[in-house]
Structures are given as C-alpha cells and as structure tokens.
UniProtKB/TrEMBL annotation:
Domain DUF659: 11-83
PANTHER family: DIMERIZATION, PUTATIVE-RELATED, OSJNBA0013A04.12 PROTEIN
Matches recorded under InterPro entries: DUF659 (IPR007021), RNaseH-like_sf (IPR012337)
Organism superkingdom: Eukaryota
A Pfam family annotated for this UniProt entry: DUF659
Protein name: DUF659 domain-containing protein
Organism: Nepenthes gracilis
Length: 377
C-alpha cells in the first residue's frame, strides 16, 4: 500500500484499512522519508499491530549515501565533485569541441541508489583523459582568465592520494551495486535486502580489504538498520527457509527486529511466548520441520509454499511466516502499475470509470492488487 504526502489522505488510508479488515493488513509501505512520521504515529495509534515500513528502494538509497558520508569517503566524494564542477565549467566556456567523457560511464542503477558512488566511479574511469585535458594549451589559456580555484583541483588530478582513496571506495561499494543488480527489488520479499547486505560484506572481505574498514560498514548498518528498514525485514530473513542456518540468533540487528515484530504483531503475551517457542522448534528442526523433504526443499520451493507444506506443527509461526513472506517491500510495484508510459491506456481507464460512475481510485486499487497477485503465481 502506498501513501502520498497529502495530510488529507490519512483518512482515506484508514478507510482502506477498515474496508480490507485491519486483521488482513500487516504493513503500510511509504516512500515519504521523514515526512511519513506524522502519518505513522496517527496510523499506529489507531492500528497498533500494523507495521509502517519504508520503501526498500528508498532505504537502500539512504544507506548507500550514508556509507558515502563516512569521513574518509566524504572527502573523496568532495574532491570528485570539485573535479566535476571545474571540468564542467571549463567545457562550457571552451572554444574547442570537447567530448564530455566524464558522463559516459554512468549507469542507471548506481545513479538511482548510490549517486555519490556513481560520481566517483565516472571520475575515476576518466583519470587519464582528465590528466591529458588539464595539460592542454586550451586549458592553460582558460585558467588564466577564470576566477575558479584551478590549482588545487589540478593538484588533486595529478596527485596519487585522491585516486588511491577513490579506488578503495569503489572496491568497497562495487559489490553492493553489483549484487543489487542480481535481484529484482520491485519483487523482493521481506528479508531479501538483509541477505543482499550480508552477501555484499562477504564480497568486500574476499577482496582483502582491511578489517577496520569493513567493521566501519558493519557498525554503520548496525546503528542505522532499525531506522531505515522495517523489523519485518529481520523477521523475513529469520523465517525464510532459503536462509536457514545462517546464525540469525546471534545477530543483534535480526533479533531486535524479531522481537519488535512479535511484540507488535501479537498483543497477547501467551501467544507471543508460543511464537518464540515455535521459532526455537524451527531452528532445532523439530517434527515436520526437520523431515528430509523439508530440509531438501528449503531452497527449491517458494518460501510461502514451504511453510504451507511443512509448518503445520507450528501453526502460529506458520501463519506469521506466510504473512511476512507474502509481503512486497517496494512501492514501485504500485507506482509503475499506474504511472505507465502507455498514456492512451491510462486515459481509457479514466473514461471507463467515469462512464460507469466508478471511483478511479477503486480501479487503481484493484489493478495493483491483481498485479501483485499475478507476480506470486
């Protein structure tokens, strides 16, 4: 479910929840950033069991940009931005025809999720071209007439310090972006984003980067994960059979998320105790959860189907797992469904709604739900 930044629509949101049935709604996904706090407090006051989740795409973008705010990376990004701005100023005023090579290496994924990384990457990839450009006669004449601080940027371009630190930054961030391209965020379920983070850190370590630097990334995620990501992500990573046996019980971030999930989802203390006991049964492979077929099918079956087939001896946990693992985590599924490029199609839907005396919002609601349902078939 997506919410837009219009205070009047909080009433509409509540009406939709009531129409669907509060017990049938597990989460509301938002793309509003810090503007969503007011909506969140109002919604949670009325529906305390419903999770208010940030869109995964938006959260990944914030996380990658916060990585770029680490002190030494921030200096690298600042230098890259200075180079980019000065070169752009020069090329706009140059009388020579200059091919803008600094713009050629940008890729859409990096620009969307890690713009600071994308900037450093394209500057780094044009190192030789930049060094050749700033020794040319045209450059020498131009810098005599410009008020820009040219000498300091020239020192950066010809020095080794910036390029060395830029290379380290790219080594750290590249696995995150490469692995991000391997799974469809729009269709990702709760827990997938945590697996992406774990895989990325493992890939960084495999490059022989010093442990102090890697620990900086882990500490940042530890401190910011609860703010950026819904606790349902942690619960999803714990309950997804594909990720079974990855030491989840020893990860503070995951166990905090599991605790928050159980406490919000279930108000009755006796039932919460039962959920925790059944999670232990899942981890200990008790009953049907430890059968040969159950273990063999963990990474072969859809997670929801797996719980439907093998979770019957832990019914409370089975119900929760199915609810969580049935959730999408990104609002772009709904946004793209409506904001399609096929304008005639969109106009036809509007005309059809008017002719039938129907509410266009109802048609969009039904269309989005049908699309979500079809993706799970």
């Amino acid at each position: 479910m997506m919410v837009v930044s219009d205070g009047g629509l909080i009433i509409t949101l509540a009406d939709v929840i009531l129409e669907a049935g509060p017990t049938n709604v597990l989460q509301v996904i938002t793309h509003l950033g810090h503007f969503s706090r007011g909506f969140e407090s109002i919604t949670e006051a009325r529906f305390p069991h419903i999770f208010w989740s940030h869109c995964t795409s938006h959260s990944i973008n914030l996380l990658m940009e916060e990585i770029a705010e680490l002190d030494w990376m921030k200096a690298v990004v600042s230098c890259a931005r200075g180079i980019d701005q000065l070169i752009s100023t020069y090329r706009r005023s140059s009388s020579c025809l200059v091919i803008d090579t600094t713009k050629e290496s940008s890729d859409p994924l990096s620009l969307k999720f890690a713009p600071s990384y994308a900037l450093v990457k394209r500057i780094f990839e044009t190192k030789q071209a930049l060094q050749e450009e700033v020794v040319g006669e045209e450059w020498k004449r131009w810098k005599l007439t410009t008020p820009e601080d040219v000498s300091s940027i020239e020192a950066v371009i010809f020095g080794d310090d910036f390029w060395g630190r830029a290379h380290l930054m790219l080594q750290l961030c590249e696995p995150f972006m490469r692995l991000l391209a391997t799974f469809d965020i729009k269709k990702s379920i709760m827990g997938d984003v945590y697996y992406w983070w774990v895989q990325s850190l493992e890939a960084v370590r495999s490059r022989g980067i010093d442990e102090v630097t890697v620990n900086q990334l882990e500490l940042l995620a530890e401190n910011r994960w609860d703010v950026l990501f819904s606790p349902l992500h942690a619960a999803g990573y714990i309950l997804n059979p594909r990720y079974f046996g990855r030491g989840q019980s020893k990860k503070k971030t995951l166990m905090r998320g599991w605790k928050a999930t159980v406490e919000r989802y279930e108000s009755d203390s006796a039932t919460r105790l039962l959920l925790r006991e059944q999670l232990s049964a899942y981890w200990r492979l008790q009953g049907s959860l430890g059968e040969a077929d159950a273990m063999e099918c963990r990474d072969k079956m859809d997670p929801v189907a797996w719980w439907e087939n093998f979770g019957f001896e832990t019914p409370n946990l089975q119900t929760l797992a199915i609810k969580i693992l049935s959730q999408v985590s990104c609002v772009e599924v709904c946004r793209e469904s409506w904001q399609c490029d096929n304008l005639p199609c969109r106009e036809a839907i509007k005309r059809s709604a008017v002719e039938r005396g129907e509410d266009i919002e109802d048609l969009v609601f039904v269309r989005n739900n049908l699309r979500l349902q079809s993706q799970k078939l």
